[in-house]
Design brief:
The chain is built from eleven helices and 36 strands. The protein has 669 residues and is an alpha+beta fold. Helix 4 (169-182) crosses helix 11 (541-555) and helix 9 packs parallel to helix 10. It is globular.
Length: 669
């Protein structure tokens, strides 16, 4: 309600502020912080902060204004008054340290996790004691755009047990650690999007400097006007309002449920889709977020009539409401439940004949969407008799009836099957479109003064590590230019081991390792020891956040400590042995296990041999009886690593690495 009235108030006055400048915000301490907004053309604006600063500015001809204001050492709460033709006050402002956290899934997964598979170690315990007025966060709306956006629909929130549930677990644990160590208020800008790739977070001019993305740029520019036509068509439809409480967002919302689930509904003209699958990027639906109805007629044995049955649908991305013969038998609503397997009881009174129609309303809010498990999970059977299950996988009728865009559902008429008239655009606008996330999420906040950036990014770029090696440092430079902070701290984490189909996660980790030398004022966090064979999301967010915090505490807050695991520095070859020298050896080199594992030596032809290795002071000796003339060494240089033994005394693991100068992808050797 407060947000509603605040937005309405801004719409009625002359001075307008972006969403990020609002009650409960945190401003960077001891800095020249930028405040900006819009007003009438040439309007004079006076800004007074309760910590004793007053500045004045005049809006430009187009109404845009911007001004710098000096901030003191950490403290608060303060207020800021804006006086022009109207008066506006921002309350409960803290002065402290501001960090932006970005990336894809591992940076986005919330404190409550995405159970049952993606859980957060220590999450429930941390939430129980999360109330802290000195930790504030703002979660930017996930949005893609072909155009540079000026604002993003978001608002500042104080850390409480309830407020932190949907907030990034990595970001919360990082903020908590910094506050505990420094006593300084911490503000976090969450700017993450699961499934996004690096090129989506880079401004277009920077993307144009990467030769391998030349064709993508040409397609982007060709489809930009077509995308505008599509957006105008979508926004010409009526909107469906959701509950403002995120915990009850989808409760009681009707998307043609009565008609689309009805036993007698005629779905003859609906198109068909083979299930299970992710419905994203399929012919006839493409990249689409919103409501899609699925219907299927099923024949069951006559002896099942009048008995209780179990309907198993497998996991559904993201949510569903499920009907049988027009009767609702179950629903799974709420964020983060895309990997829950759905099993619903069909009451005996609903099983009226040996024919039934199953109707599933799927709500997809991003990425793949749909009934996306395995065929074996899609079945129907009498309660307690799964051995008699009948498969319901195969062809299902489907029809999209509402599109989810920028936090709003736009409704498409069920009777006229309006979706089928939707304009087609060859380039899909989503979290993987070049510059799209930058335009809609970074550009709106680039004037906000921050200390630095934390980023976890790379899973969606696996298989393109050589390109990443050029693009990721370019992204760091472009962000520093955008935030007008050439020395801005830039801390990033490697991807974790996982058996990718492409078999190249080690190449991406190596590209990321090498990026550290290419990005000034950066620091890399290794997560080699947190690999998850069943997904590239790891549960140890608190430990990884602690590794991020070590970099900041050492570099920014004068809390001198080790920040990294052993980092390869030099190699010396003597006969058939290779001697590796490392930096970051605080507490010495350590073997956690009976002996070091995962080392290989490589001969002049590029053939790798499993090798023995042992620690001798700050040197690791590596050799293989099968290779008499080693030329290089690889450590943990494989897709999946499950026996990490090489650490330093501070408890940080060494990154996987190769001493070969050329970054080679798996397919090349």
């Amino acid at each position: 309600m407060a947000l509603f009235f605040l937005t309405s108030f801004f719409a009625a006055v002359n001075i307008k502020l972006p969403h990020i400048i609002a009650d409960r915000m945190v401003l960077q301490q001891k800095s020249e912080c930028t405040l900006w907004g819009k007003a009438d053309s040439n309007e004079q604006i006076k800004i007074t902060a309760s910590w004793g600063q007053t500045v004045q500015t005049t809006a430009l001809q187009n109404g845009v204004w911007s001004v710098k204001i000096s901030t003191p050492e950490h403290g608060g709460p303060y207020s800021i008054d804006f006086v022009g033709k109207n008066f506006l006050r921002i309350n409960d402002v803290l002065i402290g340290e501001v960090w932006l956290v970005s990336g894809q899934t591992n940076m986005e997964i919330p404190m409550i996790g995405w159970p049952p598979y993606d859980t957060i170690q220590g999450g429930p315990q941390a939430l129980a004691s999360a109330d802290n007025d000195n930790i504030r966060f703002i979660m930017l709306q996930q949005k893609a755009s072909f155009d540079l956006e000026e604002d993003n629909n978001c608002w500042w929130t104080k850390a409480t047990s309830e407020n932190c549930k949907p907030f990034s677990a990595m970001a919360y644990f990082y903020a908590k650690k910094l506050y505990e160590e420094t006593g300084i208020p911490i503000g976090v800008i969450q700017c993450s999007w699961n499934g996004s790739n690096v090129e989506s977070w880079v401004d277009l001019e920077t993307v144009k400097t990467v030769p391998t993305l030349k064709n993508a740029v040409l397609e982007y520019e060709r489809c930009k006007p077509l995308q505008k036509q599509l957006e105008n068509w979508i926004k010409s439809h009526k909107t469906i309002t959701l509950n403002s409480d995120w915990r009850k967002r989808y409760d009681g919302v009707d998307f043609f449920d009565k008609e689309a689930s009805r036993l007698s509904y005629a779905d003859d003209s609906w198109k068909e889709m083979e299930l299970p699958c992710f419905m994203d990027n399929r012919e006839g639906i493409g990249s689409y977020d919103g409501i899609v109805w699925f219907r299927k007629w099923v024949d069951i044995p006559i002896e099942w009539v009048g008995t209780k049955l179990i309907l198993s649908l497998g996991p559904i991305d993201d949510m569903d409401v499920t009907y049988v013969n027009g009767e609702k038998i179950g629903e799974t609503l709420g964020d983060g439940k895309w990997n829950y397997s759905r099993e619903y009881e069909i009451p005996a009174k609903t099983v009226l004949s040996n024919e039934m129609v199953i109707a599933v309303r799927v709500i997809d809010c991003g990425n793949g969407g749909g009934l996306c498990g395995v065929k074996e999970a899609m079945c129907i059977y009498p309660e307690g008799e799964k051995d008699k299950a009948i498969s319901i996988a195969g062809k299902w009728k489907y029809l999209p009836t509402a599109e989810f865009k920028d936090g709003v559902f736009y409704s498409y008429d069920l009777k006229t099957r309006e979706y089928y008239n939707r304009p087609q655009v060859p380039v899909v606008l989503n979290m993987k479109t070049i510059s799209a996330a930058y335009n809609a999420m970074i550009n709106p906040v680039k004037n906000y003064t921050i200390r630095g950036v934390l980023i976890s990014m790379g899973e969606s770029n696996v298989g393109r590590s050589s390109e990443y090696l050029k693009l990721f440092p370019a992204m760091a430079s472009s962000w520093r230019a955008a935030f007008k902070n050439p020395d801005m701290k830039f801390y990033f984490s490697q991807i974790a081991p996982y058996p990718y189909q492409a078999g190249e996660s080690q190449c991406m980790r190596e590209a990321q390792r090498r990026c550290q030398a290419l990005i000034p004022n950066s620091g890399m966090v290794c997560v080699l020891d947190f690999g998850n064979r069943y997904g590239f999301h790891y549960a140890q967010k608190q430990q990884v956040a602690g590794r991020f915090a070590a970099w900041a505490l050492n570099d920014v807050y004068d809390k001198k400590c080790e920040v990294s695991g052993p980092e390869f520095s030099q190699m010396v070859i003597k006969e058939n042995k290779v001697f590796l020298i490392f930096t970051h050896t605080e507490g010495g080199l350590v073997c956690k296990g009976k002996h070091l594992t995962n080392f290989q030596v490589v001969d002049a032809k590029g053939v790798a041999y499993d090798a023995e290795a042992e620690i001798n002071g700050n040197v690791v000796q590596v050799w293989s009886q099968d290779c008499k003339s080693p030329k290089n060494v690889r450590y943990a240089y494989k897709d999946w690593v499950d026996d990490v033994t090489f650490y330093n005394g501070a408890g940080f693991p060494a990154s996987s690495f190769t001493t070969e100068k050329k970054l080679i992808d798996t397919a090349e050797y």
